[in-house]
Amino acid sequence: MEHARPFIVWFGVTFDLSIILTSTFAALATVVIVLLGSRKLTISTPRGMQNFIEWVIEFVQDIMQTAMGFTDNLFILSTGVSLLLYLFISNLMGIPFSFVANNNTWWKSPTADAHVTMTLAIMIMVYTHFIDIRLHGFKHYFLSFFKPFKALFVINITEQFCTTLTLGLRLYGNIYAGEVMLELLAGAINKGIIAAILAAFPMVIWQAFCLFIGAIQAYIFVTLTMVYIAHRVT
């Protein structure tokens, strides 16, 4: 069943309150996890949240090492860690349940909306271009669009738009498709006891699959981010 969205217009600009709610929750959850993991640091054997945060950092460092060949840039490392945590939380928010009130969907995965994923993709691509300009200067950045041949300028420009588009739509498509399937299985509950019983097991299996897909998509997004950064720093 298709539900509307809780829109509000403020100063002529339309805002989706569900996206604001879920995106803010995911961001705050990321901050809380990092604060809990770094509140009581110890140099001995890490425990609890510190152990988890250190594992996430090492995981992102492995991605950086593979894509760039170095891991000592704390700015890029912090970007990867925060992005990985935010995307993992966002991808899973719609798996346990969705909340609908007055035919408006208030709770779902924010990354199941193309506006969110495309905004993230645009931010990442702008970030990579900023790194290139900061490290090599605007002249080197501008001339890179004419390499290896001047005739490839149009193709190089088009590549930037296509890269941004695929980065955002890949994440959106996978998360959105998973939640649509969950909604269809959940709809079987209103079709009778037999239909609900038959849909219960597939729904549990699909939720586990969505958990796996959410983790994989967060990993892919961060990995591609590091690859795009690597292309700009070299």
Please explain how this structure is put together.
The protein has 234 residues and is mainly α. The protein has one domain. It contains six helices and four strands, in the order ββαααββααα. The protein has a two-stranded antiparallel sheet. A two-stranded antiparallel sheet has the order 3-4. A hairpin with a 2-residue loop joins strand 1 and strand 2. Helix 1 crosses helix 2 (48-67), helix 2 crosses helix 6 and helix 5 packs antiparallel against helix 6. The longest helix has 41 residues, at 193-233. The protein is globular and about 65 Å long.
The number of strands is: 4
Query: Average pLDDT across residues?
Result: 85
What helical percentage do the residues reach?
over 70%
Cross-sheet strand order for the largest sheet: 1-2
Number of helices: 6
Can you tell me the residue ranges where pLDDT is under 50 for at least 5 consecutive residues?
Answer: none
- Characterize the biggest β-sheet: 2 strands, antiparallel
| SS-derived structural category | mainly alpha
| Rg value | 21 Å
Span between termini: 49 Å
Strand content: 5-15%
Q: Helices and strands, in N-to-C order?
A: EEHHHEEHHH
What is the topological layout?
Layout: E1 7-10, E2 13-16, H1 17-38, H2 48-67, H3 74-92, E3 99-101, E4 104-107, H4 114-143, H5 153-187, H6 193-233
Antiparallel strand pairs: 1-2, 3-4
